[in-house]
Amino acid sequence: MTATQVEFPLEVGAKPVFKILGAISFCHLLNDMLSSLLPSIYPLLKSSFHLDFAQVGLITLTYQITASLLQPLIGLYTDRKPSPYSLPIGMGCTLVGLLLLSIAGSFPMILIAAAVVGTGSSVFHPESSRVARMASGGQHGLAQSLFQVGGNAGLSLGPLLAAFIVMPRGQSSIAWFSLAAFAGIMMLTSVSGWANQNRSNTKRYSATVGGQQVLLSTKKIAISIAILMALLFSKFVYLASLTSYYTFYLMSKFQVSVQNAQIHLFVFLGAVALGTIVGGPIGDRIGRKRVIWCSILGVLPFTVILPYANLLWTGILSVVIGLILASAFSVIVVYAQELVPGRVGMISGLCFGFAFGMAGLGAAVLGELADRTSINFVYLVCSFLPAVGLLTAFLPDLERPKLRTANAEAV
User: Fold this and answer.
1) Nearest 10 degrees: Cα torsion 136, 149, 287, 69
2) Is residue 262 classed exposed, middle or buried when 0-12, 13-18 and 19+ CB atoms within 10 A define those classes?
3) How many helices (H) and strands (E) would you count in the chain?
4) By the 8 A CB rule, do 295 and 331 touch?
5) What whole-number distance in Å separates Cα of residue 320 and Cα of residue 274?
6) Interhelix angle for 218-254 vs 375-382, to 10°?
7) Residue 65's closest CA among 19, 150, 122?
8) Residues 150, 179: Cα–Cα separation, whole Å
């Protein structure tokens, strides 16, 4: 049996470097805001280029392939050959993609622009997650939560900016957002300089639990990663049911206005943002497996009740669900990083890529299900997804270890 000693590299100092964490979180906001512009302008592109829904789906597929599937590969490469300056390069790809999108005159050019924007996102996420860990000061959950909340804010801003800027002014106005990408390049260049400078000064820590080294077989690690992916599947497919179809559900079941439904969605997204912030620090304090238990399986009673609730309780339950369920992602990312030490980039890319892919696939499948049945039936089916959280019982117990400086030659 092949055993692995759990080792946590790439931590700088004993305290979080909040200046770097703030910068990388803000750049995450910019990256995800710019990436979310693409699906937000689908109505404009469909009308301007006379696209059918199959062609719109092909745009999404092109973006998802580059934004999701490339991430683990890029993360694996940067694990072997650390590339801190890939951060501004990734944002540069996004800038180029936006400019191409603003001047695209044909459907193939739109596909190329979507692929370039997706590539920029793939390059950004694995290395930026590594930098967040470097700046964590050992508080990995806190760092990952701060990093994640920037992305959540960016995803919510993209559609808003598209509605008020791109839709009224047309396709060419997308070019203005390249200024935000340029600002991100400048900031990420500075962050990359910090990471490059501190990489050589980084101390290595090895984990001990109760004085014993943590030894995990390769098979156990593989099974644990598969379980984490299943948990991410349940989380992001359920979240996709709310982010994509919650307004339609409210209007269909309770006959509320579009504005009222949008307010409910805004409140739900606010709860998701809050849950993202609190999940990581709680995991640092009480242990990540406990947070995963509470976040995935613990939300099951509320999701099961939701389809039978009245309007008032639907709003309350959606807030509780968003708050609890969103707390899991940053914890799962850090837990996975600790399972596979020395592969921060690959694991981060796998988690982010899988999450993006499941969200997109889930939205498409649930939309088809809603067309064939009803939106109410979708929420009845999705209400049982958190039961996948029972798989958490098979994860190894990795309590938050006490860190000790290892011998410089230790592996």
Assistant:
1) -90
2) middle
3) 18, 6
4) yes
5) 11
6) 150
7) 122
8) 18
Average pLDDT of span 74-83: 83
pLDDT average, residue stretch 174-196: 93
Q: Are 88 and 185 within 8 A, CB to CB? A: yes
What's at 133, amino acid-wise?
A: R
pLDDT at 200 over 70: no
Alpha-carbon distance 267 to 282, whole Å? Answer: 23
Identify the CA nearest to 68 among candidates 131, 115, 128: 115
Can you tell me which residue has the tokens 């399986």? 297
Residue 302: predicted pLDDT: 96
pTM of the model: 0.73
Is 173's pLDDT higher than 50? yes
For 234-257, give the DSSP string. HHHHHHHHHHHHHHHHHHHHH---
Q: What percent of the chain has pLDDT over 70?
A: 89
- pLDDT tens digit sequence for 16-55: 899 999 999 999 999 988 987 887 787 788 888 988 767 8
